[in-house]
Design goal:
alpha+beta; five-stranded mixed β-sheet; about 25% helix; 2 helices; 5 strands; single chain
Length: about 90
């Protein structure tokens, strides 16, 4: 299955598509180089398939690649970072 994650700066969200079908998103706000991830959604037809985890991982990889930091306000993103401490260095103190 072809998975694409893109950052939509105009819409303030990361978006994931599976075979061209929108499957989920992470809404965020931005303050200079700090991205506050506020809400994650996965379309019900894709729930339980790891789509949310892949979206968070790829969004965090993008944040790292851009030299930015993250505030994981979204409980799903916060739980992902807690389970994957290799991303803890991205967390901003606020």
């Amino acid at each position: 299955m072809a998975t694409e994650v893109t950052r939509n700066d105009a819409g303030l969200q990361y978006e994931i598509e599976l075979n061209g079908t929108p499957a989920g998103l992470i809404r965020f706000t931005r303050d200079d180089d700090v991205i506050t991830m506020v809400h994650t959604e996965v379309d019900p037809q894709f729930e339980g398939q790891g789509v949310g985890a892949e979206l968070v991982q790829r969004a965090l990889d993008d944040v790292r690649a851009r030299g930015e930091r993250v505030i994981p306000l979204c409980p799903f993103v916060a739980a992902y970072i807690e389970k994957h401490p290799e991303y803890a260095d991205l967390v901003s103190e606020g």
